[in-house]
């Protein structure tokens, strides 16, 4: 095995060993114009710089607009969690 291959294997092993399992919990309520929004899709992501963001969890809000998400990820640095809420607040009905 040449020295470059050995160096790459050691570097990959070091990154793998230094990654640690991290988690995040998010609870909330979706509200639009003082009304709770049921059945809205809520996604929890971990922002990644060099590769696509990781989807950690996904739920729909309950009848009262409430949601709870838990996600975990092995990361070398700190995780950078963010939410994406798909909603229909302030959208106008389509014209027929």
UniProtKB/TrEMBL annotation:
Keywords: Secreted, Signal
Signal peptide extent: 1-19
Record flagged with keyword Secreted: yes
Compartment(s) where it occurs, according to its Swiss-Prot or TrEMBL record: Secreted
Pfam families: TTR-52
Superkingdom, natural source: Eukaryota
One of the record's GO cellular component terms: cell surface
Family listed: Belongs to the nematode transthyretin-like family.
Name of this protein: Transthyretin-like family protein
Organism per entry: Nippostrongylus brasiliensis
